[in-house]
Amino acid sequence: MSEQLQQHAGLANLLHTRLTGWEQARKPQELKMLECYQDVMRIPRADDTSGTGAARAKKAAGLFIGSTRNKVRAARAKINDALFGSGKLPFDTSPTNEQLAPFADAVEDILTEQFERMGLKRLLKTGVNTLATYGTGFMFGPFVRTETLIETRADNGLGVTQLVEDKYEFDFPYFELANTLDVIPDPEARDLGAGLGVFWATMESPHTVAAWKADKRYTNIDLALQAPGDNGTSGGSDQAGQLRANVDYWHKNSRIKVARFFGKVPKSAMPAAAPAEDGEPSVAGDSGEMVDAVVIMAGGVVVKVDESPYSGKNPGMRAVYEAVEHEMWGVGVAENNAPHQKVVNAAFRLVMEGKGMALLGTSSVDRSKFLPGEDFRKHPGKVYQMKPNLTPEERQTAIIHHLEPDITDGWRDMIAMSEQFSDDDTGITKYTQGDDSSHLNKTATGISMIMSASSLPIKEVIQNIDEQWIEEIVERTVEWNLKYLEVETVRKIHGDDIAQKWQQIKDFGKTSFMEWHATGTASFMQKEILTNKIRAFADFALSNPNTAPMVDARELLEQTWDVMEIGRESPILKDEDGLDIPPQVKQKMQALQEQIKQMGEALNNAHAEVKQLEAAAGNKDGELEVKAYEAETKRLQVVGSGMSPEQIVALVQQTLMQVLTQPAPFDHDQVDAAAPMAMPDAQPDMIVMPPEEAPMHPPEPAMPPEAEPMAMPDQPQ
């Protein structure tokens, strides 16, 4: 152990110096983040009203109004709804061409299962809360853990059917979200990949550190567990104390500080992978070269060190709520709302004091009229201890009550004005917070404008999450899978078909056949706005007879269903042959077919009557009558021939839309009670046009008395 300790001593001192120096440089940002945390958790502090001029509001100092908490809650809910409102993970893949779609789908299935197993949805939701609170969040990974897949099967090997379990262990990648207060990056860097590295330091219990003994990759665990009081520094072990640097810094309240470092260290400080020829452990030469390393320190001792397996990338991933140019740290909702939080705290406390003064008032007391034990505290049933032998006038003037004016209205105006500034600073408006104030616009257009304006800052946040977290996680998981995910593991989880495709992908060695992207920003448009737009389009397109035949009503209904997300299973008919059409729609269509049939019968009757009249006509009056019937017959022929299949389809589509917009179902008795359709009387003076020049307007037959009249669309010229 002494050789290993000596071997890691230089690296431990280097990292200890970096950690303490970077932590000191981060101190101003740490204080700011602590204030943000206190505002979100509504923790009063001495300076939570500083700068408001309300330093004398002492009596109600414990009251802390949750303005920041409400803003953070609204932002978190809105972002999470945009990311996960569809019930799917916020990423998608697409092949470079359709022939490669099966391979892209196989990779997407593998990634989806891995993300669900590692709990990526829960991780991102917690990360959104971190961003809103602190303005900056850090994720690390991928790390590797062992997962076990258990399969239950029936075994007949012994002649008797038995249920047995087969266990299959495999390596599995996962990511972790760090507490922003525990992350100490290089203060000179503007991004994690540009500096010397980053520390992730936490306080752990001795039991957690002691459990690492079971892993042979860890060393010096016993020395890391020694607290300052039991390391024997006063008994001559000064060398051990020097090697462990500042032991008081690494041990506090019976807990041990564990610092994980991801970054660059001198190659000379790294232990060699193999011993030298003389059997002694060798150290890399001092060439000034820097190498990427992953180092774990516990109690000031290096307990694990490895070269970084992340191919030149830092495993840390930084995301910001609102980016600040040329800075590592972002700005969150809590920091933007800090001025308003202080104003609200001060104003509300002064309002409480002002109300107390106005309700309780003040009093002038002549203590000479009371016994020495009187404390003058007012409460229900209070009895004042006055001296004896006082006259009634002396008793009345012993206590004189004064009315205090109510001056709280001014502070209410101050709170309202501060709220407006807070809405502007945070981008979280009252509508976003669910506040149904009377001044909000209640029209659909007004609400859409308000929501669009309030969604712009949130859209920027979702873009940051997409680019800095989600797409990075997908890319790093794909890279890990290409190196370490076994085909047998894919077969156990997904089956032979996907396993075969994964084998071909691994043989290919890269994923240039597909692209992936985060979908948070794309799905951010508010469902209410999109729904209103779809409804407006439907009203415009389907109400116009000229545009109605050009619209696919089924596709329009499916888009409306997807946007509104009313339920899990869509009620829209999928069959194209119409076998499952609802009864009310069938009745409407039957009524339409009956009208067309009656028109055909009337046309045939007209032909027969014309022939009869031609045979019986012997005078001029008969000829005129024959001509009138001929004119009516030709008119019906023109109308009948003008009903093209496209026009019939338009009629059916219009009928479907009428049925869907009617609140009550179609009455079954209407069709049965419908009387035969009466043909309109022929007009003697009607000019008969040739078929190619005749107006393309269908006849308007009389409807049965109980049937609802149906509008017929105009036909194009």
TrEMBL record:
Which ranges are annotated Low complexity under compositional bias? 708-717
Asked if the Swiss-Prot or TrEMBL record annotates the protein with the keyword Magnesium, the reply is: no
Q: Which domain of life is it from?
A: Bacteria
Q: Where is this region: Disordered?
A: 690-717
Return the Pro residues bias intervals.
692-707
Q: Which UniProt keywords apply?
A: Coiled coil
Coiled coil residues, start to end: 589-616
Do you know which Pfam families this protein is assigned to?
Answer: SU10_portal (PF23899)
What is the name of the protein in this document?
A: Portal protein
